[in-house]
């Protein structure tokens, strides 16, 4: 199996390379950032991409975004993502590509189980889906009607957002100040786990969450 590895921590990257080679795989590229990952994959056409979510660590989700880009370009490209902790939004973004097949999302702690990690890599490369138990737990919690986390006032604001109302119109209809409406909107975005990176799309994503929950009530 030909593998491209992306990990900004040098020791971790070298460890992953050694581990993969121990199981008879060929690492065709080992890189430390998202742009290098995109270039390496497009040049080498590997059988599996193994990437960290955050590169550099603690910065942003550039590794995950690169993985989503690669999967969008080629939905059949197997990708196994490693992360220090569970990021449900990132996991869902990845699972939404390619019909959810040939995808893996594991916590880095799982690499300590060498045999299990190697088996997971092979399973993803073969078109399977491998999710860390903690990732599954977080996704289940996330999918339990996220709208139920909202306060009654936040639900009213979301209901009006779903009707296409602007913040100014919501303020007038609910007899609130513009600042109060903005505060409620920010709060409901947070409770619905909508990332700041989504920008203006967060209003759309919030409405989708409202629709999945069955609407008002």
From TrEMBL:
The modification 4-aspartylphosphate is found at residue 52. Residues 2-123 form the Response regulatory domain. GO terms for biological process: phosphorelay signal transduction system; regulation of DNA-templated transcription. Keywords: DNA-binding, Phosphoprotein, Transcription, Transcription regulation. One of its GO terms (molecular function) is DNA binding. InterPro entries: CheY-like_superfamily, NreC/VraR/RcsB-like_REC, Sig_transdc_resp-reg_C-effctor, Sig_transdc_resp-reg_receiver, Tscrpt_reg_LuxR_C, WalR-like, WH-like_DNA-bd_sf. Residues 143-214 form the HTH luxR-type domain. It holds the Pfam family GerE. PROSITE patterns: HTH_LUXR_2, RESPONSE_REGULATORY. It comes from the Bacteria. This is Transcriptional regulatory protein DegU. The lineage of its organism: Bacteria, Bacillati, Actinomycetota, Actinomycetes, Pseudonocardiales.
């Amino acid at each position: 199996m030909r593998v491209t590895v992306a990990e900004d921590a040098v020791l971790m990257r070298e460890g992953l390379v050694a581990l993969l080679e121990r199981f008879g795989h060929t690492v065709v590229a080992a890189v430390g950032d998202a742009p290098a990952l995109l270039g390496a994959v497009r040049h080498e056409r590997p059988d599996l991409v193994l990437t960290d979510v955050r590169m550099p660590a603690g910065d942003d989700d550039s590794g995950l975004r690169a993985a989503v880009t690669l999967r969008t370009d080629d939905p059949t490209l197997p990708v196994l993502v490693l992360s220090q902790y569970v990021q449900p939004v990132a996991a869902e973004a990845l699972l939404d590509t390619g019909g959810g097949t040939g995808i893996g999302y594991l916590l880095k702690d799982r690499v300590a189980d060498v045999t299990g990690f190697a088996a997971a890599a092979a399973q993803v490369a073969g078109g399977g889906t491998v999710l860390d138990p903690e990732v599954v737990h977080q996704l289940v919690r996330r999918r339990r009607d996220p709208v139920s986390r909202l306060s009654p006032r936040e639900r009213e604001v979301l209901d009006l957002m779903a009707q296409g109302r602007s913040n100014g119109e919501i303020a007038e209809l609910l007899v609130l100040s513009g600042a109060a409406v903005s505060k409620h909107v920010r709060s409901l975005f947070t409770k619905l786990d909508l990332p700041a990176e989504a920008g203006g799309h967060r209003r759309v994503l919030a409405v989708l969450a409202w629709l999945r929950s069955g609407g008002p009530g």
